[in-house]
Design goal:
By secondary structure, the protein is α/β, with parallel strands linked by helices. Among the domains are: about 50-235, no CATH class; about 290-380 and about 395-460, no CATH class; about 645-755, Jelly Rolls, CATH 2.60.120. It is built from 16 helices and 34 strands. The strands form eight sheets. Strands 13-14-15-18-19-20-21-22 form an eight-stranded parallel barrel. The relative contact order is 0.08. Mean pLDDT is about 85; it is low at about 1-40 and about 135-145.
């Protein structure tokens, strides 16, 4: 099954969070004429934190500073700030909101905002009139006196505007500068004009706002009815509260959020929407990316600018994925160069010429958790304790969705054929790709431990795509190569001391649910058998986690497989249940934005998390009936499926139907009379719930919604009739007819009422 091409560059977001130097006190916010128009897309500095209702601007590099917000009980200053591309125009906030008898106010480096306490829109306050002289603008400012500030023109009744500044004002009427309050004045190579609401200056071909907010603060700080001293006290940033569990009212003794459920790219929606979405789904962790190929050269200061989580500052766990090779390390900003393995990998991770080692060490150090503040790092950004050094390196050919690990041979292929023709012998070198990946993992581990000894390295997520990339019997080619590499190492003490150079394993399983089960079970067994295959006692035996890193369903036009959000709802429940029964410890929805709660897909994800939260990973009584697995299940088994996943004090059972017609089941619940907790909760694929009592209940499992014909067979990648039931472990569930432990596979021939291979 094909997957999306996400991750091959910058991601779309609610707005661009570009890297800008914070405006220093006494500096200016630069605006280039005419390329930056008023109302341009918002530019926030690298350390700004987008929040549900606005943004937070730290001062002095810490987590104290000032908010700009839309307050439902106060002013809508964020709307004014954001509509204007605020940071580029007005600079950061330098005060809290304060009020007098008539208005709310907030001061920025270059301007001041005002909004009436009663009806009225936010607008610029006449800051120049207040600082210099002029008629009283409100009863609160009746004592304004004539003031002079070095280099700026004085207030004047005779006014004129410099031509370049006039062009700028005319081109940007939304700026609302107010009427002119001075003649132009030349000062130190600048031409300056005062307007009622702000000051503008022209220098070196640019028109920009002068920092008059700082002037106002200097003149009026602490004076009654002008700028209360309390307004200048920075606020402390508070991260969003974590969600409580969404399964707290279901049978079982464990309460609270299950930290094994996560997602990818929650930042795409912005921090407010992303956090709210995660909370409503009961998700704990979120994988974000560090796009190394965006760096022109290594710089500690540039590290925040390549991270997709910069607007996602929350008290949830973030997992970091390191992606792509920059030009300075032998790659480039675009395809296929950015897929090249970086230069210098064969050098020690600490060698300055090992450019990936230098990058990994720097970025991991920048996100190391502070003692006593696990959600915050030394940089003030999200702390990260789990890292993935690459994604889907086993996707083997350029132009395949998800391809991310190439090299010069592959580049020659793309240059010659555009990635669409057969490759010559010198254009493929998979053995070298694997060798370099093994070296990348070693370097990543050494750099990570040097930067943060408590961090964990997740082996690069394997895509397990199809036989065009891996035609070995197990279809675990990259993993088997890694284990062989470990077994052949001669430095056995180093091998043990470094935990085999990884901690956990991750898979990107864009597969039909029975293939999810197959591959999860194979990799669970591989992790548990490391001692035997490597030939040394595994230092982390029993503690390596298996993570289904990307759970998602995509169309395959080449096979005529097309799905809608209702199919995704069925899929995600079936796939997560199969991952957990196969031995996965954690699962992630990919991508979070693809599971909106307004659609069936999001409701299906919520059902999966709600009913499967707190099931005991690796429980000896977990079971699947019948024990079907692998790609043949999609075209050679027609019948019901039951998956049982026990947890503390409860069992969750998942039912679905692979038969091409509906199936009627009788569910019989018998309760132990000595136990009082006999409540039974049943849900369909979109959260329509029933509370049942012990006894017999009829359940109809609908047929698969979508089937298609290919290779002379009829395929159902996603089964139908998905239901989930959770009940006390004092209750026993049986079905009529019973679902057997095993069944023979019988090929289902192509049918007349299914799609045939090819676009439809």
């Amino acid at each position: 099954m094909r997957k999306s091409t996400e991750g091959h560059g910058y991601l779309s977001r609610r707005r661009l969070l570009a890297a800008m130097a914070a405006i220093a006190a006494g500096g200016v916010a630069r605006i280039t004429v005419p390329t930056l128009a008023f109302g341009a897309e918002q530019l926030l500095p690298a350390n700004a934190i987008e929040t549900t209702d606005g943004a937070f601007f730290p001062v002095d590099g810490g987590l104290s500073g000032f908010y700009v917000r839309d307050d439902p009980r106060g002013p809508a200053f964020w709307s004014l700030f954001d509509a204007a591309g605020g940071h580029a125009w007005y600079g950061p906030p330098i005060s809290r909101v304060w009020q007098d008898a008539d208005n709310w106010y907030q001061l920025f480096a270059c301007a001041m905002f005002v909004q009436p306490l009663t009806d009225g829109e936010p607008q610029l306050a006449p800051i120049v009139d207040l600082i210099v002289t002029g008629p009283a603008v409100s009863s609160s400012f009746s004592n304004a006196t004539k003031l002079e500030f070095d280099g700026w023109p004085q207030y004047s009744q005779v006014t004129a505007v410099a031509p370049a500044i006039q062009v700028f004002v005319t081109a940007n009427p939304g700026l609302q500068p107010g009427v002119a309050r001075s003649r132009p004045r030349e000062f130190a190579g600048k031409v300056r004009n005062l307007f009622a609401n702000l000051g503008l200056e022209h220098v070196n071909g640019q028109v920009r706002l002068g920092v008059l907010g700082q002037r106002y603060k200097s003149y009026f700080a602490g004076r009654p009815n002008r700028l209360p001293s309390a307004a200048l006290v920075p606020e402390a940033f508070a991260v969003s509260d974590e969600a409580s569990g969404i399964s707290d009212d279901l049978p079982g003794t464990v309460k609270g959020i299950d930290r094994g459920f996560g997602c990818t790219l929650a930042s795409e929606q912005g921090v407010g929407a992303g956090v709210n979405h995660m909370n409503r789904l009961g998700l704990w962790w979120n994988r974000e990316q560090f796009i190394w190929s965006a760096m022109e050269a290594y710089s500690d200061a540039a590290l925040p600018t390549i991270a997709t989580d910069r607007n996602f500052r929350v008290s949830k766990e973030v997992v970091g994925l390191l992606q792509f090779t920059p030009e300075y390390a032998g790659g480039g900003p675009s395809e296929p160069a950015k897929f090249n393995p970086p230069r210098g990998l064969d050098l020690p991770a600490s060698d300055p010429s090992n450019l990936f080692g230098r990058f990994a060490r720097g970025v991991i150090e920048s996100r190391r958790p502070l003692d006593g503040a696990p959600a915050t790092s030394a940089s003030g950004l999200n702390s990260i304790s789990r890292w993935i050094p690459s994604n889907e390196p086993d996707i083997c050919r350029p132009r395949m969705p998800g391809y991310a690990w190439g090299g010069e041979p592959h580049k020659r292929w793309v240059d010659r054929t555009n990635g669409s023709g057969p490759a010559a012998a010198d254009e493929i070198d998979d053995a070298e790709r694997e060798r370099l990946l093994h070296r990348l993992v070693q370097v990543a581990y050494d750099a990570m431990i040097a930067a943060d000894p408590e961090a964990r390295l997740i082996f690069p997520s394997l895509g397990v795509l199809d036989r065009s990339c891996d035609n070995t019997p197990r279809q675990m080619q990259f993993w088997d190569g890694w284990v062989k590499f470990l077994a052949e190492r001669t430095d056995r003490e180093d091998l043990l001391a470094k935990n085999f150079w990884f901690h956990d394993m991750s898979l990107t399983l864009h597969k039909e649910p029975e293939r999810v089960y197959e591959m999860a079970a194979k990799y669970r067994a591989a992790l548990d058998g490391l001692s035997e295959t490597v030939g040394e006692p595994d230092p982390l035996a029993g503690r390596r986690r298996l993570i289904a890193m990307e759970m998602g369903l995509q169309d395959d036009p080449g096979l005529g497989a097309y799905f809608d959000d209702t199919d995704v709802a069925h899929f995600i429940i079936q796939a997560i249940a199969n991952a957990l029964v196969g031995g996965a410890d954690e699962v992630a929805l990919h991508k979070l934005i693809d599971y909106p709660l307004s659609q069936s897909s999001g409701q299906g994800a919520r059902v999966a998390v709600r009913y499967l939260s707190h099931v005991t990973r690796q429980h000896p009584d977990r079971a699947k009936y019948p024990d079907i697995r692998g790609e043949r299940a999609a075209n050679a088994y027609a019948g019901p499926v039951r998956i049982d996943l026990p947890g503390p004090g409860f069992v969750t059972s998942v039912f679905y139907n692979r038969k091409r017609e509906p199936i009627d089941l009788t569910l019989s619940f018998s309760a132990d009379d000595e136990r009082s907790d006999s409540a039974i909760h049943l849900s369909d694929h979109i959260g329509n719930e029933q509370t049942l009592s012990p006894g017999s209940h009829q359940l109809t499992l609908a047929a698969p919604r979508q089937t298609f014909n290919a290779f002379g067979k009829n395929w159902a990648w996603v089964a139908g009739g998905t239901h989930v039931v959770r009940y006390s472990n004092a209750v026993t569930l049986t079905t009529d007819p019973p679902i057997p432990d095993t069944v023979p596979y019988r090929t289902i021939p192509a049918t007349a009422n299914a799609r045939t291979a090819g676009p439809s």
